[in-house]
Specification:
single chain, 508 residues, mainly alpha, Fumarate Reductase Iron-sulfur Protein, Chain B, domain 2, Rossmann fold, 3 domains, 4-stranded parallel beta sheet, 7 strands, 48% helix, globular, binds iron/sulfur cluster
Length: 508
């Protein structure tokens, strides 16, 4: 039984009256010192930490010019105040994007602006103190780095970047989050977020081959470490056994099978997720991503395809080029070798949706939409795909391609209200390192705007399937849907729909 109240779903999305401090008690578990040290951070808060934090803040504003612009340019117009799902769901004023930014901006002003140094009371400049650090820890772990607020800000100020910087500064003084940092440690030791070792991965995939054979009569393969395969699939480890993620993996396998694409997974790089981005650490993001390059070089693949995972696609699309040389940008010998190795006729990287969409356009897949006639489907645009990356060659392809893949697989599709989809999409409430049980209250409350939009299409069109292309969204919705009286199995993979519709041939 939850010890908090689930927000009500009403006729229209309401902007709540302010409830000061209503989420001030929210505390995510802290990472233990040994886990901090694994990631190259100090284990304990040491004397003089305030100076370290202020110095780190200065470094970040020099290194990331955008961060400095964001900190300098807010005019307090208020356009962002009611755009964050966490404010709408909690009414805590510190969950207004501008107020969240000001937690860091006030410290920046105190140490790095003339007015803040000499007239701090005039410009709201504040010292870096333990009280401030505690507020950062509380409220920067109530931001899913979804970037919705930036769409409505006339200056494009991106709170996600400010939130990442705050987490990076906190890690620099030892104050890290258990959920993200321990998961990154697991990737370093084992290769994936779930700590699934190679043998267990191989067994799981063999079991999956048997299940698909039983269901279809066809030998659909889920190969691991096949040197010389054309395609390396990098997918979130949740796809290997979590529900409904695994239906998506089965769908990818069937697509590769029908298109005759020689593909493989890697036991060394068995994770698409990259929590280095959530903690704002370029070094850790790179270290996680390097495993993918190592696997691609070892297996001599020609293409790299990314499975259904929102933030992983953001890292792949926006950062893999300079991080590891997938695409143009990396300059070291390994990056250059990989650029030589990958087939220039395909995007590097390519999203699985893009691959399936292209195959559908070419008529290479046989899809029977009526196989999904019991599904009435809507699509949740995942934040990191919608607002932080693109897909395919057309502008807005990240909105069009997933919907076209769905519409090729189902007869009944209905969009949610326009102000809640595409670049206006509401976060699931669990992104950006929030998907942990110790933050269940903020997860449930932050899901309210998405649940509100979902309720509208459920009532109007009898929608019973919420499709998504993000492992975090899928896990988050499985957990929070019941709080809003929706069935937890209403959430599904886009490739789960493809999997149902694809006609692989008659049973043997
Ligand atoms: S959760 Fe999203 S909308 Fe809210 S402050 Fe963070 S980036 Fe902005
Ligand atoms: S919309 Fe932009 S400029 Fe206006 S208050 Fe919010 S962050 Fe500041």
């Amino acid at each position: 039984m939850a010890d908090f109240e689930t927000p009500a779903l009403t006729e229209f999305q309401l902007v709540p009256h302010i409830k000061k401090g209503s989420m001030a008690h929210s505390q995510t578990f802290a990472a233990k010192p040994e886990f901090q040290e694994d990631l190259g951070f100090p284990g304990e808060l040491e004397e003089g930490w305030e100076d370290v934090a202020v110095k780190k803040l200065g470094e970040l504003t020099t290194k990331y010019r955008g961060l400095k612009v964001f900190l300098d340019s807010c005019v307090k117009c208020g356009a962002c105040t009611d755009k964050c799902h966490y404010y709408l769901g909690t009414a805590d004023p510190l969950n207004m994007p501008v107020a969240r930014q000001d937690l860091l901006r006030s410290v920046y002003r105190r140490y790095y602006t003339f007015a803040g140094k000499y007239f701090p009371w005039l410009v709201g400049a504040r010292k870096m103190t333990k009280g401030m650090l505690d507020k950062w820890y509380c409220y920067f772990h109530q931001c899913s780095q979804c970037r919705r607020c930036s769409v409505f800000c006339p200056y494009g100020i991106d709170t996600a970047e400010i939130s990442m910087a705050a987490r990076e500064i906190m890690d620099a003084v030892s104050v890290g989050q258990k959920y993200c940092n321990e998961i990154i440690g697991k990737v370093y030791k084992i290769g994936n977020n779930l700590g699934l070792p190679e043998k267990a991965l191989v067994n799981t995939l063999e079991g999956l081959e048997e299940d698909v054979k039983d269901e279809t009569g066809i030998d659909v393969r889920f190969p691991v470490d096949q040197a010389g395969a054309d395609v390396l699939l990098i997918t979130p480890s949740a796809d290997f056994f979590a529900e409904p993620h695994i239906d998506g993996l089965i769908g990818y396998g069937k697509v590769f099978h029908q298109a005759g694409i020689n593909w493989t997974l890697s036991s060394h790089a068995s994770e698409a997720g990259n929590f280095g981005m959530f903690i704002g650490s370029y070094e850790n993001m790179r270290r996680v991503a390097l495993r993918i390059r190592e696997a691609a070089l070892d297996l001599k693949v020609k293409r790299i395809v990314v499975g259904e995972c929102g933030h992983a696609w953001r890292v792949a699309y926006s950062f893999w080029n300079t991080l590891i040389g997938v695409g143009h940008g990396g300059n070291d010998p390994y990056a250059k070798a990989l650029q030589q190795q990958l087939d220039p006729n395909y995007p590097a990287p390519q999203h699985i949706i893009e691959l399936t969409y292209d195959l559908i356009q070419k008529g290479a897949l046989t899809l029977d939409k009526s196989a999904n006639d019991d599904q009435r489907v809507t699509f949740h645009d995942s934040c990191n795909v919608a607002r932080a990356s693109r897909m395919g060659t057309m502008p807005g392809g990240q909105f069009v391609l997933p919907r076209e893949v769905i519409k090729s697989s189902v007869n009944h599709y209905f969009d949610m209200a326009p102000e809640t989809i595409h670049e206006n999409t509401f976060c699931c409430g669990g992104g950006g390192g929030i998907l942990t049980d110790d933050l269940i209250e903020i997860r449930v409350k932050g899901a309210q705007p998405r649940m509100q939009a979902l309720m509208d299409v459920v009532q109007e069109y009898d929608v019973n399937y919420l499709a998504a292309i993000c492992a975090i969204c899928k896990s988050q919705f499985s957990k929070v849907l019941p709080y809003y009286k929706f069935p937890m199995d209403m959430i599904g993979s886009v490739h789960g729909l493809v999997s149902n519709a694809i006609q692989l041939g008659a049973k043997q």
